[in-house]
Amino acid sequence: MNQPKNHILVIFGASGDLTYRKLVPAVFDLYNQNLLPDKFAILGLGRTDLSDVDFRAKMKAGIQQFALNKPDDENKLNNYLEKLHYFSFDTKDPDEYCLLKGKLRELDEACGTDNNFIYYMATPPNMYEIIPEQLAKQALSDESAGFKRLIVEKPFGYDLETAQKLNKELLKYFNEEQIYRIDHYLGKETVQNLLVTRFSNGIFEPLWNRNYIHHVEITGAENIGVGNRGGYYEGSGALRDMIQNHLLLLVGLVAMEPPTLIDSTNIRNEIAKVFHSLRPIKEEEVAKYAIRGQYTASHIKGEAVKGYREEQGVAADSRTETFAAIKLFIDNWRWAGVPFYIRSGKMLPTRVTEIVIHFKSTPHHLFANDASICNNYNQLVIRIQPDEGVLLKFGMKVPGAGFKVQNVNMDFHYSDLSDTYLPSAYERLLLDCMLGDSTLYHRGDAVEAAWKFVDPILKAWKNDKNIPVHGYPAGTWGPEVSDELIEENDITWRYPCKNLANDGNYCEL
Ligand code: BG6
């Protein structure tokens, strides 16, 4: 494994939750596996007035709670904490950037980090246009002596127009190669495994096209509500929050052509090609291809739960969708005519992200004595989380007289690989950025193409008051009408359970 070059990780928004829960614990996990360079420091920036000592004490608590490798060696933990520094700084104030430059120079000299800096924008998105510009004004984006990389957290824009504007702004001050747009889904082992499942097995790829696949289903379900994020979520909704980025990324990985090489350019080219091939849904067609819903108050396991409109920070007459389902097509050679059904929602019965490839049935139903089996096509379920794994469903003969067919499961669970350590998404992605590998980060053109696809849906939902926001009781699988997206009578969504191999109404959620 290559070791990253010496550098400083500069975190804007270091007093926030992301730094505490995800970033500093993930870097600690890297440290624990000796994956950090010899000379390394973290510089946290935030408006809160903290000393290095305060910052370290706060981060120590975050590491103890959230690192995957729980720190059992106090010395090791303290050595790591020594690498953490804090600088109180007003991100909005252009005059303070020359102070930041001075601080970075001083730290760089003291730590021997060779003028290599990674800037992580863990701030609200309204800072994205200020930080790059001010860094550039101080020549802090200049790579003539040392690399300068910029990590941008989602949301990358609010719609197509703002995404284009953001990309344009970023590109004024940093090159595309310096920009790392992070999507934690790409950091998930099981998402990366999609590439391996598809392209390292001779058995799947020949079937992976319109000749053998009937339809594809992708679910990103959560069993929690918006919690204390109501204020943010009101301006976002399921389409922006989950579908534009995470679920379309899964569509990209399922549908892409084999890349020539596993590298940043080739993989990202193929994903972008899928996004460019998404059949546009016109504003006037939105009601036919997209369903939106919002959870209402209900009882789950005997306990009363709030509806979305009662959540903190949410308007009493809110029309923000907490559930969205879309039927889409990819207009290219491989996928012509194959519908992709994607759905995501909050307050659904269970937390599960999975892809189901539904294969076409046999051309002639020889064992037609049991209609339900004939109609139950072969399915390949790729489970992203939880109970990560892969499941193949197929028909087998029931022992005994005649030819009765039963659907059976063949399943692989990651948990069976007892010695394999599954790194967290942030751990993997931060390491890649440190190594200068942007394969698992979004490229600007692909982000824009994804916005281009969702934009007419957003517009129609905003402007056309006749498109209903369907209520669904918290704890159910979203509005009943989402079943109507899948028109054919004998096909429904899969209703997955906590365990990969189970589905349907009667299982543990
Ligand atoms: C985030 C969304 O990007 O992804 C959240 O903003 C959502 O609303 C989260 O809960 C889901 O991530 P995961 O990894 O739990 O599927």
UniProtKB/TrEMBL annotation:
GO CC terms of this entry: cytosol
Binding site for NADP(+): 47, 154
Keywords of this entry: Carbohydrate metabolism, Glucose metabolism, NADP, Oxidoreductase
Pathway note: Carbohydrate degradation; pentose phosphate pathway; D-ribulose 5-phosphate from D-glucose 6-phosphate (oxidative stage): step 1/3
Active site per database record: 246
All copies of domain Glucose-6-phosphate dehydrogenase NAD-binding, residue ranges: 10-193
Keyword Cell division: no
Gene Ontology terms describing biological process: glucose metabolic process; pentose-phosphate shunt, oxidative branch
Residue ranges of every copy of the Glucose-6-phosphate dehydrogenase C-terminal domain listed in the record: 195-494
Pfam families attached to this UniProt entry: G6PD_C, G6PD_N
Function in brief: Catalyzes the oxidation of glucose 6-phosphate to 6-phosphogluconolactone.
Protein name: Glucose-6-phosphate 1-dehydrogenase
Species the sequence originates in: Carboxylicivirga sediminis
